[in-house]
Amino acid sequence: MYFFMTFKHLPLKKHLLMPSLTQVLLIGGFALIATGCSNPISVKHVDIQTAYSLRSESALSVSKPSEASKMLLRRQGMLDRFEAEPDVVLAELHANLKPDDEDSLFALAELSFLHAERTEERAYYLASAVYAWALLYPEEGKSMQILPSDPRYRLSYALYNQAIALGLAVDDDDAEENEVRLQAGHYELPFGTLEVSLDESGMSWGGYPLDRFISTNSLEVEGLRNRYLKPGIGAPLAASLAKTHSSEKKLGADRLGPYTKVPVTALLNFDNARASLQNGNMNGRIEVYAEDQASTVSINGKKQPIESDTTAALAYQLNDSPLYAMEIAGFFRGSVLTSGLIPKDRAQDGIFFMHPYQVGKIPLVLVHGTASSPARWAELVNELNGDPKISERFQVWLFIYDSGRPVGYSAGRLREALTNTMHELDPEGKDPALQQMVVIGHSQGGLLTKLTAIDSGTKFWDHISDKPFEQMQLSPEARKLIEQAAFYTPLPFVKRVVFISTPQHGAMLAASQIVTGLVAKLVTLPLTLVNTTAQLAKMAAASGDEKFVAMLSRPMTSVDTMNPNNPALQILASIPVPANIPAHSIIAVEGEGPIEDGDDGVVAYKSAHIDEAVSELVVRWGHSCQDQPETIEEVRRILFEHLTTVE
Fold first, then answer.
1. Domains along the chain?
2. What percent of the chain has pLDDT over 90?
3. Which residues of the chain have pLDDT under 50?
4. Which phi-psi region, left, alpha or beta, contains residue 192 (left: φ > 0; alpha: ψ -120 to 50)?
5. Residue 256 gets which letter from DSSP?
6. What is the DSSP letter of 459?
7. Where would I find the AB hydrolase-1 domain in this sequence (predicted)?
8. Strand 437-442 relative to strand 362-367: parallel, antiparallel, unpaired?
9. Distance (Å, rounded) from C-alpha 549 to C-alpha 541?
10. Please, is 402 exposed, middle or buried when counting C-beta atoms within 10 Å of its C-beta (0-12, 13-18, 19+)?
11. What's the pLDDT at 519?
């Protein structure tokens, strides 16, 4: 204190204003001492999200090495060098690699992937896959030392799955985006060579060769609520079907949709990976597994789950699907099955499968509504596919039809198509699961569904004519058409029906004469129906059957047959679904008002309600409620209930 006080009161002199060299050194020394006394290690409090993000950084999440890989680089003084000369560092790490050095195997897998991302050199993607496989699958009899709780464990799977899809990517000018080529061949690695063979046994599905594989790793799905991805080993892909059959035609192959995308998984199985890394001569085998045919694979004597992505394959199938464009055309022009949308080598009766016929699985038939298509069932199909308890017991069939045609006509086609399909698949009745069919219909599709389950006797014909049908002089074609459209008995294999937003007593818009008249002018009906109508009208006029003549003034459309005042619809409404075929109703009602007075914008609650339903759920939504969570959960409940009766 005395020093400072004395210094303060000294007279200022010019030489004191300029510090001497000694003073500068003295002050600098004090500064160094002060710095040396401070704590070089500290902590900083961050929020949980930041802390977790820092710990979970990786080549896949932020295009940076994970902390585990950086730790290995730091220990060897290579962290800065990796940024400057990554290929040299990777070569040095590989040269010093020991077979059981799992820390280095992981780092090499991640750093090779990161280098491939930055340089687009495919050899490094394949190297990443090799290192990851060597880490995950030591030779038989050995076990991986990294624990499942270690973040590197799951990250190694992810690196492998991504790396093989990118390492086998197609870069041709005519290739689709994210296309993967699965073929045998010679591939270069940064440290050697890779000879790849192809297991052909997995390269066909349902009797068709698989073609054009698209990696779903790089697909973002929009329009479906949930993405069902089963974690495991392998690159999830969406495969197209080739246009020609394979040499071995499968039962029901003709009923697979022509635009089907098959969820498959590609595996690149490396032989003796850890040992082969020492000499650089790698051998691998490409294996392909369809999601509906395999869920596990044996690797070194141990079962491993296979990664699959059913949702992405479904979304890719519906991306730019022509089905949406055909909805209006199918209503007005009646051209769904004649427009070229369905190739001639596929079934032409409207029944299509989501998968090849699967013995022991119960058919779940989905029937769309007016001016709609099977694509509108996507949300429901995705949810049911994502539920293993459902997908293991049911197989989804879809019915597509020209929805502008009379309900009775379309119902006859549905019944005939189902009957033909059952005969094709199981002519001797050896598969009991096929005899437990569940049919679900939305809107007009619900009316078609009901007509698979009821016994109408002669009620529809008696309304049309006073003359017994057997006495009608008709051409064979006309007789068959009328038999299908006017006489119904329960199909023996239909055991449960579900109605969604179904106009059991008619649709509101169909009651308008303006609407029905306009639709009649715009809808094109099939020539067979027009000719049959004309033939019947001529016959009725000759016999003086005025009742019949009035009915045949013009061919009816589906809108006519959904008119609440249509006698045929009233007859249908008066015939209950028999008690031995449980019927369920899912009814949409918009708004929050009284249910009994409500409607969905197309169908009133009172029209959709039927007394014989064993269950009824009201969904607060518009007419197209088939994709709503409440509807889907009710369908799931009904299917589980159905299983209890089967078992």
1. 57-160 (no CATH), 179-315 (no CATH), 328-646 (3.40.50.1820)
2. 66
3. 1-17, 514-515, 518-522
4. left
5. B
6. H
7. 364-632
8. parallel
9. 6
10. buried
11. 46
